[in-house]
Amino acid sequence: MNQLAEIISRNEDRIRTQWIDGMSKSVQRADLITKAELDEQCSAILTAIVAGLKSSGPADLMGGVAGAGWDSARETFQSISASRARQGFSTVEVATYVLSLKQPIFAAIRGTFKGNQDELFETIWAASELLDRLALVTTEAYMTTREELILRQQQELLELSTPVVKLWDGILALPIIGTLDSARTQMVMENLLQTVVATNSKFAIIDITGVPTVDTLVAQHLLKTITAARLMGAECIISGVRPQIAQTIVHLGINLEDVVTKAKLSDAFALALDRSGRYVARKSTAPPKANPVSALFERREE
Amino acid sequence: MERIPVLRMGPLLLVTIQVDMHDKLALQLQDDITQRISELGSTGVLIDISSLEIVDSFIGRMLANIAAMSRVLGAEAVVVGMQPAVAITLVELGMSLPGVRTALSVEAGMELLIGAISNAAHGSEDEYSQT
Predict the structure, then answer these.
(1) Any idea what the CATH number is for the domain that residue B78 is in?
(2) How confident is the model at residue B130 (pLDDT cuts 50, 70, 90)?
(3) Fewer CB under 10 Å: which end of chain A, C or N?
(4) What are the CA-CA distances from residue A294 to residues A163, A167, A217, A238, A299 (Å)?
């Protein structure tokens, strides 16, 4: 296969120019990558291919680009496609980027073996196979980078979306935003219980205004959290139940009878204050109202 | 033989579990508590499990049983200071310990017990309104 390496290195400049030209017609994204950057990447790839071909024999080539001689080439491809994944190229664009190298290389081979049909076919077949495998390596690296990106974002979302806030001495609030799945429930539960211990809070208000739908699974997860909190001696109140969600809960036959539910966070907060023996009063010189409940209603009617 | 002490505080019994519970110890504790309640005529039992870090379904059932037995003997039981990990484990094991009163700290548990006892003394029917 040294012949192929020779052909490529001899015609490197021409191949590169044709390659970039071909790409500019189809998939070059001038908005994502500059011409100079692209030029640099292309020449790095060509150098890596030549180095790979020179160091590995034909056997290695037939075994794909898994041979030891292809390590540096593989690294080059992986780093390039990883950077492309982060820049926002699509899968097709990344795959076509490598595959569009075929035409200029074939042209160079054809120029070398004019008239020698057998040699021409052999070399073109070898080059075609090599480029296909390189395209696969590139696409795989692109996918891996994308998956890592998604995983990291999921993790960040998980951490961001479960804050526990202290509303009052002994009263916590836990606004849940997004759907509750098993992994999130675990996180929410641990977060809540640890904060309950740390702040010695008797009441925890779980606000589900930001939960789009409540099905049996979500309800089960909520009940688990509430039971765990109860075992530790804290009381949970669910708030932010929207009319549609109330309807769904009843239609699905979910039993929330042992749980206190309120329509609004403010209602739940008022209840928690009331149960902990406090009430909110208007600032005035007059002595506070005797009945804490009526004082609360008066304040809310303003 | 290893034993968990059951302390008397006026009308109440105070039990703090400071070691890892194994099955024999739990059974012994159950015997001791029921024995002491009937001996002293206690009206409340406070079980502090804030040092308990490992729990299995047997221990969970034991806690529920002790609470139920105390109630049969006329004493209110309250479990205080359960660790988050223990609570999560019990929930995952499907044990929600219904009927067991809980509190965050010994102090809160005492308050709960004294409230429950005075409620009972005044002949209130609404014993479980707080849980």
Answers:
(1) 3.30.750.24
(2) very low
(3) C
(4) 32, 21, 38, 23, 9
Kindly state whether residue B68 falls inside one of the protein's structural domains.
yes
Name the domain count of chain A. 2
Give tens-digit pLDDT for B66-101: 999 999 998 999 999 999 999 999 999 988 888 889
Nearest chain B residue to A186 by CA distance is: B88
B84: closest CA of chain A, how far (Å): 5
Q: Among partner residues A200, A201, A228, which is closest to B87 by beta-carbon distance?
A: A228
Which two three-digit tokens encode residue B20?
């890892």
Query: How does DSSP classify residue B3?
Result: -
The residues with which B77 forms a beta bridge, in sequence order, are B45
For A193, the domain range is: 165-300
- On the question of pLDDT at B57 being above 60, the answer is yes
Q: Looking at the predicted structure, is the pLDDT value of residue A59 above 50? A: no
Q: Give the domain-ending residue among A113, A131, A153.
A: A153
For residue A231, list chain B residues with Cβ-Cβ distance below 8 A. Answer: 79, 82, 86-87, 90-91, 96-97, 100, 102
Residues A118 and A220 in one domain: no
Burial pattern A159-183, b for ≥16 Cβ within 10 A else e, equals eeebebeebeebbbbbbbeeebeee
User: In terms of domains, do A199 and A146 share one?
Assistant: no
Do residue A140 and residue A102 come from a single domain? Answer: yes
